[in-house]
Amino acid sequence: MRPITTFLAALSINLIFSTTLFSAEDEFSFICDVFNKSITSPEYKGLGKQEKLNLINTKIWAGLKTDTAKEMLSAIASASPDLKYQFLKEGIELETGKKWDCPVMRDY
Question: Distance between CA atoms of 68 and 25, rounded to whole angstroms?
Fold first, then answer.
């Protein structure tokens, strides 16, 4: 089994027992919405990339309600930047059983 598959399978099993699927799905949409707003909201104008990411991160963590989303984001926090989106996408798809994509987040 590939390391990412093992990691995501273990994470998914843990997350399944921590909260309901519907709430987690809403949380994953919320995460993408925060990134989408970062490109259109005046609040982000004039900020550098790292400042934007810090503000995005603050807004995401302040808005999360489910343990599923919090645990998933915590688990990928130590991943290399080029793998974080891939881990998040695969984890969300394993958790929800649905395709998920957030182009703004992927391309950031």
Answer: 10
Q: How far is CA 80 from CA 63, 77, 83, 84, 96, in A?
A: 24, 8, 5, 6, 24
Using the predicted structure, report yes or no on whether residue 21 has a pLDDT greater than 50.
Answer: no
pTM above 0.90, yes or no: no
| Domain interval for residue 74 | 3-107
Please give the C-alpha separations between residue 66 and each of 9, 72, 96, in angstroms, as whole numbers: 19, 10, 14
Least Cα distance to 37 among 54, 59, 22, 69 occurs for 59
Q: How far is residue 86's CA from residue 82's CA, in Å, rounded to a whole number?
A: 8
What's the token pair of residue 33? 């919405």
Q: How far apart are CA 6 and CA 32, in angstroms?
A: 25
Instruction: Indicate the number of domains in the chain.
Output: 1
Whether the Cβ atoms of residue 35 and residue 44 lie closer than 8 Å to each other = no
Q: Which two tokens stand for residue 77?
A: 């926090």
Residue 41, by phi and psi: left (phi above 0), alpha (psi -120 to 50) or beta? Answer: beta
